[in-house]
Write a structure and sequence with these properties.
Shape: globular
Largest sheet: none
Strand content: under 5%
Radius of gyration: 18 Å
Number of helices: 7
Helix content: over 70%
Distance between the termini: 74 Å
Order of helices and strands: HHHHHHH
Length: 137
């Protein structure tokens, strides 16, 4: 019986560790301590293989103006969670920030094609087209 209770406690503790780390990273992000947030998210990814932290790494790096690291994180997010629209939407947002509108449009539409209820991607794709037209005027 002691072993069983100990096992449950160990499991609960193991589940709390990434949650505490995640909250710490979110707190750093909220305080605009983006490099610190990225480091925490990277630890979560490396220790727990929790793919959504790749998205968080990408956004923290974009905010820290470390665009190469952001792009790498989003690309890895696609590799590790490619069946979900969010990684494609995030890469679209990265490319839009880089003013690579054709690529941004394609990634937004990939997200929307994967899940038509992910309508924010369609809105963003349409917005990118408007930006392109304005830039070409």
């Amino acid at each position: 019986m002691t072993l069983c209770v100990r096992s449950i406690l160990d499991h609960r503790t193991l589940m709390e560790i990434p949650l505490v780390m995640l909250l710490d990273g979110l707190n750093k992000f909220r305080k605009k301590e983006f490099k610190e947030a990225s480091a925490i998210y990277t630890q979560i990814w490396e220790r727990f293989n929790f793919a959504p932290t790749l998205n968080m790494i990408g956004y923290a790096n974009m905010q820290a103006d470390n665009m190469a690291a952001a792009k790498n994180a989003f690309a890895e997010y696609i590799t590790n969670n490619g069946g979900h629209p969010n990684p494609y939407d995030s890469m679209g947002e990265y490319l839009e920030n880089m003013k690579e509108y054709d690529g941004a449009y394609d990634y937004y539409m990939m997200a929307f094609t994967l899940d038509s209820t992910f309508s924010v991607s369609k809105v963003r794709a349409d917005s990118v087209r408007i930006k392109q037209q304005a830039d070409n005027s």
